[in-house]
Design goal:
Layout: H1 12-17, E1 24-25, H2 31-46, E2 51-52, H3 55-70, H4 78-81
Parallel strand pairs: 1-2
């Protein structure tokens, strides 16, 4: 269980700093969440942790991870994907 920033421990910030998080999916909602998004993103960048901020981005990352695990990678242009 991870607490929201400012609402106890552990938080995503402390876990990023400890090297216990390898990927962040953060879809903030509201003004307070938005300010936490910047802080999480800043700490993630400082520790080389990828940070995804949209559900469509998270979905694409999951598909990429699954393709890597299944070794079904292929290279296509953006035009081929959208044709």
């Amino acid at each position: 269980m991870v607490c929201k920033v400012g609402e106890g421990d552990p938080t995503s910030l402390s876990l990023i700093r400890q090297g216990k998080i390898q990927l962040i999916v953060n879809t903030p909602w509201g003004k307070v969440s938005r300010s936490h998004e910047y802080e999480i993103g800043r700490v993630a960048m400082a520790h080389n942790v990828p940070c995804i901020t949209t559900l469509s981005g998270a979905s694409a990352a999951v598909r990429g991870i699954m393709a890597t695990k299944n070794r079904t990678l292929s290279v296509r242009s953006l035009q081929e994907y959208h044709s």
